[in-house]
Amino acid sequence: MNPINQEVSNFTGQVAVVSGASRNPSIGRSAAFQLGLKGASVVINAREAAPLERTETDMREAGIEVVSIPGSIGDDGISERVADAAISNFGSLDLLVNTVGGSLTRTSATTLKRSDLLATLELNTWGPLALIQAALNVGLEEGGGSVVNISSGTVNKTTPTMAAYAAAKSALNALTRTLARELAPRGVRVNGVAPGLTQTTATIEMWEADDGAAAAGNILLGTLTRAEDIAAACVFLLSSEARQITGQVIDVDGGNHLLGGGWTPIGDPSIEGFREADRS
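^ thats the sequence. predicted structure below, dont judge the formating
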């Protein structure tokens, strides 16, 4: 029997890629920092160059080895550039966190436009899948790789105006499970994390005025989820401590999924100001 691993979540010598890692606060930025502070070299990506460069600077000042590659991860050639940057700068690609996604429309399914549905599906599925494909092409499975996709607790709800987003994240969950089965013989684990309402730039109008107090009152644990909570779950799933976990999507929502259909801020008169999710 192997001895107990004393170096919990130590990623020294490993290389991580994190998409959507520019905004502060955001799940991607927090995941990139947590992985870097635990020893990983990190390639970060986001749509806009300026905030991405600020994150790169902040990470370097924290002593993290980091390279940034701007561009929308679903666009032709961007996922390949990101994966290639891991190899050319750090020599491998071992860990992958896909955080890019979002809700592009708040429309009933009865009036939803085909273009809006397909765009939402593409945003939440193709970018993550393209990056996984690119990572596999440069050797993600060598030595055993690990992937985490960011899903959403929305899939457990039936909020009428979020039908497109729920469908898109449900599709991402299906991809996560299917890839987990297909890639397991190659030593690659694929899991997901499903956040509830989380304090990020994408949801800032829902919590900024009172630091989330009103929203937290609807959550079983009584506190609003922060980006670092989601990132911590990602880091665990990427780590050797989770070596027997694959094909799982873990809810990180303060217990909201335990409340039947769950509480949602969309349509709650006490929590106003929803906007489209940050597509960084």
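The longest strand covers residues 189-195.
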